[in-house]
Amino acid sequence: MNTPLLNDRLLRAMLREPVDRTPVWIMRQAGRYLPEYRQVRERAGDFMTLCKTPELACQVTLQPLARFPLDAAILFSDILTIPDAMGLGLHFVEGEGPRFKQSLQTAADIRRLAPPVMDELRYVFDAVSLIRRELAGRVPLIGFAGSPWTLACYMVEGGSSSDFSRIRSLLYDQPELLHHLLNVLALTITDYLNEQIAAGAQAVQIFDTWGGLLTSAAYREFSLAYAKKIIAGLRREHEGRRVPVVWFTKNGHLLEDMAGAGCDVLGLDWTADLTEARRRVGGKVALQGNLDPAVLRAKPSVIRGEVAKILANYGKGSGHVFNLGHGITPDVPVEHAAELVNAVVELSPAYH
Amino acid sequence: MNTPLLNDRLLRAMLREPVDRTPVWIMRQAGRYLPEYRQVRERAGDFMTLCKTPELACQVTLQPLARFPLDAAILFSDILTIPDAMGLGLHFVEGEGPRFKQSLQTAADIRRLAPPVMDELRYVFDAVSLIRRELAGRVPLIGFAGSPWTLACYMVEGGSSSDFSRIRSLLYDQPELLHHLLNVLALTITDYLNEQIAAGAQAVQIFDTWGGLLTSAAYREFSLAYAKKIIAGLRREHEGRRVPVVWFTKNGHLLEDMAGAGCDVLGLDWTADLTEARRRVGGKVALQGNLDPAVLRAKPSVIRGEVAKILANYGKGSGHVFNLGHGITPDVPVEHAAELVNAVVELSPAYH
Fold first, then answer.
1. How far apart are CA B277 and CA B289, in angstroms?
2. Structure pTM?
3. What is the per-residue burial (b if ≥16 Cβ within 10 Å, else e) of A231-260?
4. Minimal Cα–Cα distance from B217 to chain A, Å?
5. Is the complex ipTM more than 0.85?
6. Is residue A323 classed as helix, strand or coil in its secondary structure?
7. In angstroms, how far is CA A331 from the centroid of its own chain?
8. Host H or E run for residue A185
9. What is the pLDDT of residues A144-199, one digit of tens each?
10. B-chain residue closest to A215, CA distance
11. Contact B128, B198 (CB under 8 A)
12. B153, B166, B169, B256: which to substitute to probe chain A, counting the most A Cβ within 10 Å?
């Protein structure tokens, strides 16, 4: 644990401290676009075995770092480990995404749902410790969790959905029941992230993937209020350094509100304009993002040009972490991911 | 054609002229939530027969007006009639949405695509004339089309998609090819809407359903630029009245830009805040929307409360057309749709 951190560019940028260049990492950087990932995934048999075996999770977490000069590792895991540990039986159906054996169908289902014993998630914390050891201080490790609203979306629906209509009806029809569920989840997520931090996560990101489905009023009440609760309960200092927190909402548009949630960084999807976003958050938080993942299927010269635009959009000074606006897709050629990272490394020093 | 319009509340509100109460219509108001619609749909056999038979299209267009005191009829049709007339072979797969027999797979496919002969779409204009006759001036009739970007999304993908990744790659890799396609579509849509207006449509709406998938820069270049082109080419006066144009982008967030596209009304989805949106468009356009369709599955008292909030959010004065933020879903009880309309009728006079 006490190995000194050799590259702290990510943590510095997240806290808006001066850096020599813009740090870069890629959402889902340990993923299916890497042939070496697909190999390990195939040997493991299924996705959850990969998540639940710390040695394998560690192995795939480190894979992209061997290829690209990335400024962070991110724990290989899934946001749905928590509902899985609550007994909902997570599994993945090829081409359809996550499914639960049991969804929350009735008020009774929701009321009887108990927070998981943290020991059920030991495999996550073991993976964090192991990755930290193997990283040996090269770059910081990011831990993560889903937001209460986003986890509840999947739990009530029983899996993925284009519009999560069941929970959106529940929200209007039985708001107090939904608040009960979100409260249980917020407490659990707080414990879960604190355990990741104790095990060695040096920054944490909360994925509010489906927050953008909500009206402004509902977003404040059912998503952001719980972000505040969680962030207020997190251990913000560990191993003598501040542990930055990133709040990422897909299609999030209430930037001023989000910037007041207590996080250090806002993660933005590709639809946001960084110049405008930076003006709106007024120096309160750093920004992470936000290249359109579709750019990575275009030719390398286009990728470089779009990276240049994002850097120019943010402009001069610290407080920007380069990333995609959403996860990298399996069809991206590895050389294209390399071009993205190289372009950030080569073009960003001019902004610092 | 020369029957006087007995209820012009919609047209007046769209032009920000004084009204006695806020007009209301519902996106997809002639749809599967109505048992009488399902009956006609079943007899017709398939959805496209319904669209292509003016008598049936007219019949279902009028159905919701017999139930609710709505302030407009909207042509029963589909945004994909244009690519269908271009020879792509539109059909609907149960539970999966629209599919084309042929999608635009290659640059050659796109380059050889010719604008349709307008006569192929005669059934639409015939339906418009017939509906106007049957309406006998009770309320105005709204015509519509999809935006070039939205039609191109379906045409390149070959159907619906969660992220339309093929066209988003095309956008970055071969922007000039995409512009060619969008140009052909914009010309066609202009003619198509002008024919609807000539046949009797008293307002028109352009559905930019997938504009919200784009970055700010790409939205301006690949969606909004074509909105401007189309709107500039539309016949804006017919039968002695102005024909208002509504531009609807789902997840649209560049309101100031949208307000400058030449439209009279911006259609907003439920994630927008009407107070904020009204401030941002600064009296340049009227606003249409934006109740979350999920509200209609909640109990009537909740529906009434949420309608009240939307009315209060817009505030006093004309320039608001009440609607959902997206189409009504098939699982909504008819009494709930009635409660929505009644609540607008009863609560909105206080704002005028």
1. 11
2. 0.96
3. beebeeebeeeebbbbbbbbbbbbbeebbe
4. 8
5. yes
6. strand
7. 20
8. helix A175-199
9. 999 999 999 999 999 998 889 999 999 999 999 999 999 999 999 999 999 999 99
10. B271
11. no
12. B169
